[in-house]
């Protein structure tokens, strides 16, 4: 009788066993790197042993960086069900429809590894990908799965995400932790609202929005301009968002009566962060209108200060950029303003940028930027996406590569390449392309500039 073997399951089991063994030898290793190696050598015992020996001898491997403990600590002082419900009236819909970047995805993977210690990393990433990297939806699906690991994941095995996640990540984590209480509160609030509307309808005290003409509004649903015209909070919120998007910070009445909405009135329809930003803009305008002698502003943001008269550089404490006080461009020390404007300097900068771009890879899925330090050309992004380091295309596995010369010549990419040779070739090729492009536009281009850049 033939026995059917699930190779995917066997690969996962072997890779997890290799991972546990190797992690004890190299506890500082970046888990994603080690995981990709364990999967690569899942059916190659000799290759795995050689990898361990070479790693020990060379002592060169990417190391994990500490993650802010904030991602896994519930801040009870910041979170309450009431404030959460005010910010997210329909949290399930919000978290399902929102799109986030690589930091959110990395911290989501880390959080799920922490919560589901009996689920394999492979399973967690597959479910995240299936759900378009939505944390809440993936969490709910993982809760229904059976254990795929025989032993729980050790704390040292959990991927340490790099960087600070967006604030919405913590909100989503709080929703996961307090889902039952939040939904119960929202349901009770909706029932109370329906009862209040019924009572107000009986008493004839329902209000009407002067913009969308909704006529079943309660007192807490409306705000007014300084002349007393009433509008629902949704209409005022949409209006302020449009005006702020146009760079405006004054918000006229929607009935065009000539009056405006007061800053304190707008607090009822804006998120705290947006309201604080508006307050800051208003303060900056007041400062600018005051005509304070010696006051200068950053060319890249609205920060203002009276700088040291002897300094040529404006050091911004807000956006952290350094700029020239004379030409108001980014600091170009040791070059003078006239040198920066010189064509050759501009061309050199262009070539430098192209050389840098040649080194950096961008994940096709989450946009993360990275440069390989070591390893093969099958790259696994922190979001789980697979891509080739050579051609930079999306791949599905090792079938994209070959170590056979004929197959490489036929179009396959090599699995292994020397980092220094590869990067040098890519940088030189892009630099030469950029120089040829500039020469076509400017025959007087300084052709020696590339020699200086290579130094």
UniProtKB/TrEMBL annotation:
Q: In which pathway does it act?
A: Protein modification; protein ubiquitination
Residue ranges annotated for the RING-type domain, each copy included: 205-417
Instruction: Identify a single GO molecular function assigned to this protein.
Output: transferase activity
Domain of life of the native organism: Eukaryota
Q: Which InterPro entries match?
A: BRcat_RBR_RNF216, IBR_dom, LUBAC_E3_Ligases, Rcat_RBR_RNF216, TRIAD_supradom, Znf_RING/FYVE/PHD
Which keywords belong to this entry?
A: Metal-binding, Repeat, Transferase, Ubl conjugation pathway, Zinc, Zinc-finger
Write down the CDD domains for this protein, in alphabetical order.
Answer: BRcat_RBR_RNF216, Rcat_RBR_RNF216
> In its UniProt entry, what is this protein called?
RING-type domain-containing protein
Q: Which organism is it from?
A: Nezara viridula (Southern green stink bug)
């Amino acid at each position: 009788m033939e026995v059917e073997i699930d190779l995917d399951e066997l690969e996962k089991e072997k890779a997890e066993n290799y991972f546990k063994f190797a992690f004890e030898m190299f506890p500082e290793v970046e888990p994603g790197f080690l995981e990709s190696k364990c999967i690569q050598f899942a059916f190659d015992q000799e290759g795995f042993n050689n990898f361990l020996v070479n790693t020990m001898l060379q002592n060169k491997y990417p190391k994990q960086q500490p993650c802010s403990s904030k991602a896994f600590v519930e801040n009870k002082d910041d979170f309450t069900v009431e404030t959460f419900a005010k910010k997210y009236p329909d949290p399930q819909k919000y978290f399902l429809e929102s799109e986030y970047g690589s930091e959110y995805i990395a911290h989501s993977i880390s959080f799920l590894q922490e919560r589901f210690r009996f689920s394999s990393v492979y399973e967690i990433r597959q479910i995240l990908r299936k759900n378009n990297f939505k944390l809440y939806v993936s969490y709910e699906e993982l809760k229904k799965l059976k254990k795929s690991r025989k032993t729980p994941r050790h704390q040292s095995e959990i991927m340490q995400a790099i960087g600070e996640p967006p604030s919405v990540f913590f909100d989503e984590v709080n929703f996961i932790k307090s889902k039952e209480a939040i939904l119960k509160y929202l349901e009770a609030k909706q029932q109370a609202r329906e009862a209040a509307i019924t009572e107000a309808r009986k008493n004839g005290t329902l209000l009407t929005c002067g913009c969308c003409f909704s006529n079943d509004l309660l007192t807490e649903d409306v705000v007014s301009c300084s002349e007393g015209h009433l509008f629902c909070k949704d209409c005022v919120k949409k209006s302020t968002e449009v005006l702020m998007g146009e760079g405006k910070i004054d918000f006229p009445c929607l009935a065009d009566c000539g009056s405006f909405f007061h800053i304190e009135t707008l607090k009822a329809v804006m998120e705290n962060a947006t309201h604080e930003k508006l307050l800051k803009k208003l303060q900056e305008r007041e400062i600018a209108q005051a005509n304070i002698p010696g006051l200068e502003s950053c060319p890249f943001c609205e920060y203002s200060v009276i700088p040291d008269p002897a300094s040529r550089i404006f050091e911004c404490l807000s956006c952290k950029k350094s700029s020239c006080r004379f030409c108001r461009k980014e600091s170009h020390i040791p070059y003078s303003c006239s040198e920066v404007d010189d064509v050759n300097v501009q061309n050199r900068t262009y070539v430098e940028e192209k050389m840098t771009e040649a080194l950096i890879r961008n994940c096709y899925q989450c946009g993360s930027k990275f440069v390989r330090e070591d390893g093969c050309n099958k790259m696994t992004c922190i979001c789980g996406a697979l891509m080739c380091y050579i051609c930079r295309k999306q791949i599905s596995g090792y079938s994209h590569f070959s170590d056979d010369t004929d197959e490489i010549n036929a179009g396959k990419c090599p699995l292994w390449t020397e980092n220094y040779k590869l990067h040098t070739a890519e940088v030189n090729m892009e630099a030469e392309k950029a120089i040829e492009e500039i020469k076509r536009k400017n025959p007087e281009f300084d052709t020696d500039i590339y020699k200086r850049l290579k130094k």
